[in-house]
Each structure stands twice: as structure tokens, then as C-alpha cells.
Amino acid sequence: MKTLTVPYLPELDKLDSEGISNLMEESAVRQSIGHANWSEFSYRPISTFDIARSDKNLYIRYFVRGNCLRALYTHDQDPVWQDSCVEFFTQIPGENSYYNFEFNCIGTCLASKRISREESTPLDPDTMAKIIRYPSLGNRPFREMQGLFAWDLIVIIPFEVIGLDGNHLPEKIKANFYKCADGTSLPHYLSWNPIKTEKPDFHRPEYFGEIYF
User: Fold this and answer.
1) N or C end of the chain: smaller count of CB under 10 Å?
2) 131-157 as b/e: b if 16+ CB within 10 A
3) What separation, in Å, do the N-terminal and C-terminal C-alpha atoms of the chain show?
4) 168 strand-pairing partners
């Protein structure tokens, strides 16, 4: 099981997107989303994330470099996993439920509180609006493009959205980070922590790693 410790960078809350990006480049923890867990989906674009926190928010900065790029969906709770997509799933230890946050490359988000893949409660629009996104590609949709592309996405998830008090965080939470693009000409399913299932399945908390605060 993979583990990481999230750096505490309270000044992040005072910065614009460029300042956040620069500080995270210097001081956040960087990890690779590099496990291609299923041999029939062997394509592996370069995918990493930087992670840090303030008192109120969890900051994740994704970077992706690879072939083909797609962003059709523009409304929150659309099926963004069909597009060029990055994801963060998390579970508070001791709880049966978990949260999934899925973002296409222009920042459209699907997010839910879940018991399983089949049982979920989508986050309401007011809660979704609290999740800040800074996509390097802007937010205009486009059909799949062929070529070599690099993009990044900063997401800011308030701790309150996942039921935590930033001033009284637990020692750790469980989580996994993903890169996928189901509906593209190069579908792939990459993870930070390995997943040992026969078919692609990100909804497996038993394969989450641990994030320490």
C-alpha cells in the first residue's frame, strides 16, 4: 500500500492560480499515477499529481502529457470519465462510504458520496460550487484531437465537502488517484495505488492508499 504525507501550506489560500501552481511546484508532494493495472489497457500517458493543504482546503494539481485529448462535457455531474479525466477518491477510516471526485481536462466535475459503484448520492449544486478548479486548457469544450498534448488542472476541495474539520483532521484518510479516458481512441485506466481486480474498477476502497496529515 502506498502512503504519503500532505504538506501544510496555509499561504495557498491567499494565492491566485499562478501563485498556487508555483508554490505547489516548489513545496507540494509529487506522486505518479502510473499503474496500468489491466494488460488490455496498456496505454500510459505521463500522469502526476502534487498535493498540499491549508487549514480549510485540500489542494491537488494534476499534470498529464499524452496522445489524444477530449473534453465534451461542460456541466457538473456529466459523465466526465468519458473525456480526458483525472480523479480523486477518498474514504475516512472507519466509515463505509467514500467520495469520488472526477474532473475532465476543462474542469467539469462529477462528485458523489458513495457506498459502492451502484449506490451513490450526488453532491448538490451548492456543494459542487465550493470545489474550485483551474484548468490550463480553459473551459470551452472540444471534440477529440490527435497529437501530443500537455495540460494541468488545479482542484481545491474544501475539507467540509468530505465531512472533515480542517482544524481537527484525523491522522490519515484513505485515497486513490486515477487517470482515465474511457470514450477516447486510447482508453486507459491508471492508478496511484495498484488495484488487483480482473477488470477496470476504480470503486474499490480496499485498494486505496493512505494519506497522512
Assistant:
1) N
2) bebbbbbeeeeeebeeeebebbbbbbb
3) 17
4) none
DSSP annotation of 54 = -
> pLDDT tens digits for 160-201?
999 999 999 999 999 999 999 999 999 999 999 999 999 999
The contacts found for 97-104 with CB under 8 angstroms, 24 or more apart, are 98/174, 98/205, 98/208, 99/161, 99/162, 100/202, 100/203, 101/131, 101/155, 101/157, 103/62, 103/133, 103/153, 103/155, 104/71, 104/73, 104/80
Q: What is the pLDDT of residue 1?
A: 94
The residues, ordered by sequence, that sit 6+ positions from 158 with a Cβ below 8 Å of its Cβ are 56, 57, 58, 130, 131, 166
pLDDT above 90 as % of the chain: 100
- Model's pTM, two decimal places? 0.97
Contact 213, 3 (CB under 8 A): no
Question: What is the third-level CATH fold of 3-212?
Answer: Immunoglobulin-like (2.60.40)
